[in-house]
Write a structure and sequence with these properties.
The protein is elongated, with a radius of gyration of 30 Å. Among the domains are: 101 residues, Serine Threonine Protein Phosphatase 5, Tetratricopeptide repeat (Alpha Horseshoe), CATH 1.25.40; 162 residues, no CATH class; 223 residues, Rossmann fold. It is of the alpha/beta class. A 6-stranded mixed sheet has the order 9-8-10-14-15-16, sandwiched between helices. It has a 5-stranded mixed sheet with strand order 3-2-1-6-7, with helices on both faces. A 3-stranded antiparallel sheet has the order 11-12-13.
Length: 728
């Protein structure tokens, strides 16, 4: 017989428990008669009283008699009185009492019960020896109950909860166990940040958004020792999950870690491997643009802009944005890109999971788009008077942006994302002031059609997006107003800024501290025309050939076909400061750490990348499918290949949010490297020196070139916007 709460739930006594049940009732009667209650009489008395309280609570469920709750509260209080402060059962008994007090409040409305429950939960959450899961539950109840009664007290509860998150996903657990545990509490960080925003405490919101996200990545960054990684690899195997040897080794590493940290911190290194205080973030930001965190929660949505040389973050409430809207947009986007993942986009463009589209298929697509445009132009000149007239704004001859209609769901998704979420941020940052919108009239037969020609700034600012929750799966960098006819499209993010992403602010700041520009480039080019499933991607050959024409062969190492083995690629990655993959890849939904890129003899998996120590590697271009896709169940953990490359030491990464077309991979890469090569060349050798700090601009340029070719049709957008830049 045990405390119901500590065994996973409230339980009625079984037949074999009748003796204990009657003993508990006898104790209850003795107390009512005024007899002193001492644990010396029976060591099991506190347990009996706790179970008696659970039984009364269960009887209330059946009877609805509030007196049963009062009896349960009395029994739980007596159990706590008889339990030593350091006893292992104390946290569970405190939780049971708090739950019962809340239940009685829900039926009587007596606020005194809630106030008592808050005190009980706070006491439980601050017991250092209690299991983290029990403490976290108590901390969340403490925070939630205080929210409407004492908001500052609520922030104290969330502070305790955020601190406990990393302990819930302890380093002694396997990766699967940690991710499973985080899955159950994935809402905590957003809820805490939302509460902080509501109280106007933006620095606390920033602190929690940093500490409560990318927990496993931060642990791996701290524990990138060969012993720990080998332990993790062994324990990841399903056959070894029950292995006592693996569990013992993992716990040994963890047990040694905390004392070592304490020893280091006690020797004047007080902040060693501790999260950077929020105030310090503002001192170390990149000088070329702001970092924008976006928090989405049921209660509210907010953006927080960290601006170079500003002492305080800029808080931007997103009053028209909701979590429900984000979830809806995410679901609709998934419907748009699902055919890309399963080969059903249309009968004309088959796709294999994670495989790049064949070059010949794109040829048909391009011909179709051009033919469609010619037909539309013909219809416009023949009978376009009525159509053009409908777009005229009689008073000013300027076509209003509100008249631009989305012609497909991807157009509508990007438009709603722009209007509700992203435009208010750019407006608050005054980026819209830097783009000149010029009204222009173009003659078509006897009518005028008016639209805006956007004159972008000559040197656009950088911006780093740091989205949370399901927003991490929406293409913020591509939000805007588009139509099939590109010249009639409205404003979009790329008109104002050059976008990058970062998993956390601290991940970006690590790159700022570590940046060291090389005087020359050693580039590793990896290509594979045959995926492991037999699918052919001939465009990878064309892609590498085009890159080699731009870069000097003397500065490149090219591994292709049978030479591109996992071991050889890993070895060369340790010698080069730039790496470019042109191959197949995919995101493993069941086990994200097994996501990888297809090489000749196997896959270069995410865990392989984490093992690499590549401090000299400046940049990685992952011209493959789904390399920045992530796990939708754990959006705040950034479990994808691009984040893995950042963690391995790269200053920046180009990845893809979903499947890409084979030929477009070659064209984007060509434009990307042409831009970098044109910017600067090595003075000594005459070879292009690749500057990773300009990579975001190079990708921006490459995608603008692709936009001119494919336009803003549904297909054009889906092929262009998966490309994203991470890091510095």
């Amino acid at each position: 017989m045990c405390d119901g709460n500590e065994s996973g739930g409230l339980q009625l006594p079984q037949r074999g428990d009748n003796v204990g049940f009657h003993e508990a009732l006898s104790v209850e009667d003795a107390v009512r008669d005024g007899e002193p209650l001492s644990p010396d009489v029976d060591p099991d008395t506190p347990l009996l009283m706790s179970n008696l309280g659970n039984t009364f609570s269960q009887r209330f469920v059946q009877s609805g008699d509030v007196n049963d709750l009062s009896e349960a509260i009395s029994a739980h209080q007596r159990a706590i009185q008889l339990t030593d402060d350091g006893h292992a059962d104390m946290p569970g008994r405190l939780n049971s009492l708090g739950d019962t007090l809340v239940r009685r409040f829900e039926h009587t409305g007596d606020s005194l019960d809630v106030e008592k429950a808050i005190i009980i939960y706070r006491q439980c959450a601050t017991i250092a020896s209690a299991p983290p899961s029990i403490r976290l539950r108590a901390a969340l109840r403490w925070a939630e109950l205080s929210a409407s009664r004492d908001p500052p007290e609520s922030l104290l509860g969330y502070d305790a909860a955020i601190y406990l998150l990393s302990q819930i996903a302890g380093m002694g657990q396997t990766f699967q166990q940690r991710y499973a545990n985080l899955l159950k509490i994935s809402h905590v960080t957003a809820a805490a940040a939302s509460a902080a925003f509501a109280q106007g405490d933006v620095l606390k919101a920033l602190e929690w958004l940093e500490q409560g996200r990318c927990i496993v990545w931060n642990q791996l960054k701290q524990l990138r020792t060969q012993q720990f990684l080998e332990t993790s690899r062994v324990s990841e195997s399903p056959a070894s999950l029950e292995s006592q040897e693996s569990a013992t080794l993992a716990h040994t590493v963890t047990a040694a870690w905390e004392p070592l940290l304490d020893k280091i911190r006690n020797r004047r290194f007080h902040s060693f491997l501790r999260p950077l205080p929020p105030s310090r973030f503002l001192e170390k930001l990149p000088q070329v643009g702001p970092v924008v965190l976006i928090n989405v929660h049921d209660d509210r949505c907010d953006a927080l802009a960290l601006i170079p040389d500003c002492d305080t973050p800029l808080h931007i409430p997103l009053t028209q944005f909701t979590l429900q809207k984000v979830l809806e947009l995410r679901k609709r986007l998934e419907a748009c890109i699902k055919p890309l993942r399963h080969g059903l986009r249309s009968p004309v463009y088959p796709l294999v999971i994670g495989a790049r589209k064949r070059e010949e298929e794109h040829g048909k697509h391009k011909e179709k788009v051009l033919r469609k445009r010619e037909e539309e132009e013909g219809r416009t000149h023949k009978g376009g008077k009525e159509r053009a007239t409908s777009n005229i704004r009689a008073t000013s001859n300027i076509r209003p942006m509100s008249n631009i209609r989305a012609t497909s769901d991807i157009h509508q998704i990007l438009q709603e994302l722009w209007l509700c979420g992203i435009k208010p941020i750019l407006d608050a940052l005054r980026f819209s002031d830097k783009v000149c919108l010029i009204p222009v009239c173009r003659m078509r037969t006897c009518s005028f059609i008016s639209y805006f020609v956007k004159a972008p700034p000559s040197n656009p600012s950088r911006i780093w997006w740091c989205p949370t929750g399901p927003l991490a799966f929406l293409p913020i960098h591509a939000a805007g107003i588009y139509t099939d006819e590109s010249q009639l499209s409205g404003p979009c993010v790329s008109d104002f800024v050059v976008s990058s992403y970062t998993p956390t602010v601290s991940a970006l700041l690590d790159k700022v501290k570590a940046v060291e520009k090389s005087t020359s480039s050693k580039v590793l080019l990896v290509s594979q025309t045959s995926a492991l499933d037999g699918h052919q991607t001939p465009g990878t050959t064309q892609e590498i050939e085009s890159v080699l024409k731009i870069l000097s062969p003397n500065s490149c190492i090219h591994l292709e076909g049978s030479a591109a083995t996992v071991s050889q690629v890993k070895q060369e990655m340790g010698r080069c400061n730039w790496v470019h993959f042109a191959c197949g890849a995919d995101q493993n939904v069941q086990d994200p750490l097994k996501s990888g890129m297809s090489l000749h003899d196997g896959r270069l998996e995410l865990l392989d990348i984490m093992e690499l120590r590549t401090p000299q590697c400046e940049f990685a271009f992952l011209s493959a499918c789904q390399t920045a896709m992530g796990d939708e169940r754990l959006p705040d953990e950034a479990v994808h290949l691009s984040a893995g490359m950042l963690a391995a030491g790269c200053q920046g990464v180009v990845g893809t949010m979903w499947a890409i077309r084979d030929e477009y991979g070659a064209e984007v890469s060509k434009s990307f490297y042409e831009y970098l090569a044109a910017e600067k060349r090595d003075d000594n050798a005459g070879d292009p020196r690749l500057d990773s700090s300009r990579a975001a601009y190079a990708l921006h340029h490459a995608l603008q070139c692709l936009r001119k070719q494919t336009g803003d049709t549904e297909d054009g957008l889906l092929d262009r916007i998966p490309y994203v830049h991470f890091g510095l």
